[in-house]
Amino acid sequence: MTDIQQVIPQARPGGRGFRAYSAKHLDMLVQRAGLSPRERLAVRAVATVLPFRTNAYVVENLIDWDAAPDDPIYRLVFPQPDMLPEADVQRLAGLIDDGAPESALRAAAHEIRMRLNPHPAGQLLLNAPTLHGRPLPGLQHKYPETVLFFPRQGQTCHAYCTYCFRWAQFVDEPELKMATDDIGTLVAYLAEHREVTSVLITGGDPMIMGEAVLRRYLEPLIDPRNGLDHVESIRIGTKSLAYWPQRFVTDPDADATLRLFEEVVASGRNLAVMAHFSHPRELEPLVLAEAVRRISGTGAVIRTQAPLIRSINDDPRTWQSMWRTQVRMGLIPYYMFVERDTGPQDYFAVPLARAYDIFRDAYQGVSGLARTVRGPSMSATPGKVCIDGVAEVAGYKVFVLHMIQARDPGLAGRPFFARFDPSASWLTDLEPVFADKFPFEPDGYQAVPDELPGLWPSEPDEPGELMVPAI
Q1: Cβ–Cβ under 8 Å, residues 85 and 91
Q2: For 355-414, how does the pLDDT look when each residue is reduced to its tens digit (9 = 90+)?
Q3: 120-374 maps to which CATH number?
């Protein structure tokens, strides 16, 4: 084994080397980006609404401070002055500048948060499971075969992404948080729902937990006495490989964590580390390569995913570089997501038409081993909706879409069309074409047969108005 201490940048001598930075350090840190006092005040104002946390590894090893504030990793973790509407930022900045009571600042932040759709896709109402009539907080069950579990100790991260769709987990709004430490209830629920084949441990970031705590959650899932043989895979959603790869290399419990991974694999399950990489620079450090090597050595599979984010990775060359590097390292490209309709979506979102162009251009430049990736995909209320392309059908310019996953399993894999809209950035911005409803809406249209003589006019008088009845 290499002398890993020679290649790992240490945040500070001794201990785990981990040093977190929170909002109280924000003004000091952003001075390095050359922001004026007025701009720094605006950043602090945004941070009263949206969460901020980073660490010394990210600050000292991933950010190019000579390029800040335009550096993509800087923008990935530091709030931007214009992430929120200007009127809201000015209101908050005024309260901070005037030394307003903390209660006034909290009240203003709460009011703004409630306008930011803190829990998109109906996850609090539509995905909440019950057991014997009792609601199960900290669990989500949207698709029949997959259950999400939010361990209470894993609902923070080594650093927060500015675009995070789960930002509500990290702010001072207890009623918005999803979490539980009741692994027994999860086991009981899984025992009664044998259609579930996969459990996703998510957050936050489960890898913020030490091995002993993580073991308390994983061991019951693989214990043969619990009768969960129908659970074929366990997934761990994490950004730790990008933000603190030392978790798997030099942390005091790194070796124990890898042994736990080996036990999960030995139980006959597929263990998938769902790694979140937003930019190629996160793949460069030698410590990351060592972490990947060690995890892969346990038999676990590392799959990679991230959203497409304006000003951070909205360039096909960025994604092509990421996917090619990931394949070279033995990682499996999995998803390019569309920025979800929550938080500062208007600031970070890329129009769907451009998202498709970026995905296609990147996809064309990689080998078949990287073409495991899917996208651009919207994790919306009815399911994961993928943009397959832009085409002209019977004189109409349309988006061609299909559902990778669906709340109604019968819709998975089914193609459908939406009227082309160059400014649309989310599913709710789209309108159906050749039908009056999308297939996931009540009484939505059915697939149109390949041959239907006389259905398509050669020159429609009103583009976008042609309706095809359910067949």
Answers
A1: no
A2: 999 999 999 999 999 999 999 999 999 999 999 999 999 899 999 999 999 999 999 999
A3: 3.20.20.70
